[in-house]
Write a structure and sequence with these properties.
Length: 241
């Protein structure tokens, strides 16, 4: 009898960009795209994997681009944080329609729609089999949702950050512009920083490096790729010390 396959990771943090929820255009919320994401999350949860999600807000509003158009930077960042909560609620809705119990926790207090972020409560939700979605970024302006992902992953004891992208890993140059771009199967934090490879912003990256938090950059839009990563298959690019 074939032995049942066991997941490599027991607790993961999945980092989703806001644009991913916008589907092909990357703008607004595409229900089909959100449902596909929820299906992949449900699939790994059925293996007993504890899943937390940090979601961006770029499909609705991005603080940095707002400040370039005249909005005060801190105000723009708060607007972006509110956008992430909208996305978190959309993902929660899709997950719960698939029968997956889900909680949204926000770094900005908004009791009518989400719990406030409390680390111990988040861990308890995971232990009870619930997916936890973190909205509101870090709750502070000038920090990206990449930094929120690095921070929350460390706080809740995730084993790995899975950075969902539309490309199948980290390349030495833009594969869309350079057909000869080389993909890395694995790379160190230091190498990625020195080469200025856009894995995460420098604050998020430093947090991961200081806390020895591995990152896997992978193509989330290929069917069952999340399951393959969680099962330990060589998918995407592994970034470690």
């Amino acid at each position: 009898m074939k032995k049942a396959q066991r997941p490599k990771y027991a607790r993961i943090l999945l980092k989703l960009s806001g644009e991913a929820l916008g589907g092909d255009t990357g703008i607004g919320i595409c229900p089909e795209a959100v449902r596909d994401m929820a299906e992949q999350i449900r699939e790994v949860r059925e293996f007993g994997v504890q899943v937390v999600v940090v979601v961006g807000g770029g499909n609705i509003f991005r603080g940095l681009s707002g400040s370039e158009r005249g909005i005060e930077r801190a105000t723009g960042d708060y607007m972006g944080m509110l956008a992430t909560v909208i996305n978190a609620l959309a993902l929660q809705d899709s997950l719960e329609k698939l029968g997956v119990p889900t909680r949204v926790q926000s770094a900005i207090t908004m009791a009518q729609v989400a719990e406030s972020f409390i680390r111990r409560r988040a861990v308890r939700h995971l232990e009870k089999g619930r997916v936890v979605i973190f909205g509101g970024g870090t709750g502070n302006p000038y920090f990206s949702t990449d930094t929120a992902a690095a921070l929350r992953a460390t706080e809740i004891g995730a084993e790995v950050i899975l950075k969902a992208t539309k490309v199948d890993g980290v390349y030495d140059s833009d594969p869309k512009k350079n057909p000869k771009a080389k993909r890395f199967a694995a790379i160190t934090y230091l190498h990625a920083l020195q080469k200025q490879l856009k894995v995460m912003d420098s604050t998020a990256f430093s947090l991961c490096m200081d806390n020895k938090m591995p990152i896997i950059v992978f193509d989330f839009f290929k069917p069952h790729n999340l399951r393959r990563v969680v099962m330990g298959e060589k998918v995407g690019t592994l970034v470690t010390g």
